[in-house]
Fold this sequence. Notes:
Function: Binds the 23S rRNA.
Family: Belongs to the bacterial ribosomal protein bL31 family. Type A subfamily.
Number of strands: 3
GO biological process, one term: translation
InterPro entries: Ribosomal_bL28/bL31-like_sf, Ribosomal_bL31, Ribosomal_bL31_A, Ribosomal_bL31_sf
Order of helices and strands: EEEHH
Amino acid sequence: MKAGIHPAYNEISVICACGHSLKTRSTHKGDMRVEICSSCHPFFTGKQKLMDTAGRIDRFEKKYKASRVGKAAPTT
């Protein structure tokens, strides 16, 4: 490899908004701040919220049922 053309590879701190901090190596200069990390992300913590899609569909149909009454299905 050619000398002098590669960026410096230094140890930096990655600091999350939740307060968790970790050390890594990067060409980034200075500390890096992130909004979410594996310590606070719902997928990794097991506190994942599942969406109730069946309930959402029922609410949609209930809301727009009145506008569909009396309309014939389109013919193609």
